[in-house]
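Memo subject: From amino acid sequence to discrete backbone structure tokens
Keywords: amino acid chain, backbone geometry, structure tokens, three-dimensional fold.
Body of memo: The sequence and its backbone structure tokens, given next.
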Amino acid sequence: MMQAVFAGKKIVVGVTGSIAAFKVAGWVSDLAKEEADVSVIMTQSGMEFVTPLTFAALSGRKVHSEMFGTEIDDPMAHINLGREADLILVAPASANTLAKLANGLADNLLCTTVLASRAQVLICPAMNSRMYSHPATKENIKRLKSLGYTVINPAIGLMACKEEGEGRLAEWDDVKEYVARALSVNDLRGTNVMISAGPTREPLDPARYLSNRSSGKMGYALARAAFRRGAHVTLVSGPTTLPCPVGVDRLQVQTADEMYNAVISHAAKNSIIIKAAAVADYKPAKNHEHKVKKDQIKSHLELEPNKDILLALGKMKKPGQILVGFAAESQNLRDEGVKKLKKKNLDIIAVNDISTKNTGFEVENNQVLLINKSGEEQLPFTSKLHTANLIWNDIVRLIPT
């Protein structure tokens, strides 16, 4: 539900002298499509790479470049832009602009706007890799962070100067998550959160394993939503094809035993734990070192139970710690959810309805029944990211004040 994050927000985009300025034109276009109110400030060097007309057309608003506007309706742009902004995004940020901002210089409209504003400032450096790695640039970035600015690390790759290294402008998909975080209500700021996600694979031999249909999408959506809301997120993930959510620390595991060890070893330092992974209940009693030939496979497979991760977490839960579980059910959702809530000492259980092809495993949407110790709530059929935010709304109410 990106629109709810960006719609109506006043975002100032500062474009400086870097060849990567042409990429930011696409960023401005995307923000405008999300119904953000985007104002662009360009430095004189920035206008050497992309014309103001381009950004004016994409944002639907006049582009600012002069310190003192001559227009009668905007004589104090250097004050008004910063005062009204919900967020300032400096991208691309050249080495020169980094140095000016780090030292509080105010010799152009962009730098003055940043100084005059109390909005959050996101800075996306983009420059030659040697310039980026220079001690002066590193010191300027350190200084910017100490002033409270968020500096988004550049990418590594081939640049326009034909050199390869760190200095490419970060990708918009990554930057957009930081923008969403800055514009969201950070009701999880300072909170350590651990989420498990995805399936486990229980090997029979080097070629075969037991698993399930979990894609990890619900757990990854919970991690993405938690990052936006300000949390420090540890994601313990079984095998999936999903990219790691921006800003999230991911621990990758394969088997139920590996997931058990990872989750239990990190449990104590997290105040909220969500176990969204679909852990295999059983594993083959024997894991063969070499592939078993087809004519040697027995018609009956001997299994043994895996450790119950959620039960273990419930037994070791500390006072004030919030524990949330998931259950995938195709019938008797409420009864099965209440039973699991009590048995495993949970604060909340989210019961996935997997009886239809439009919810549950491998799809983009979900419909969840939330049950806690005082009642229940049927969430609407919606995207998994929106579902994740609705679940977080319920969790936040339980955080001790």
Observations:
- The chain has two domains: 2-183, 192-396.
- The first strand starts at residue 10 and ends at 15.
- The CA atoms of residues 29 and 58 lie 5 Å apart.
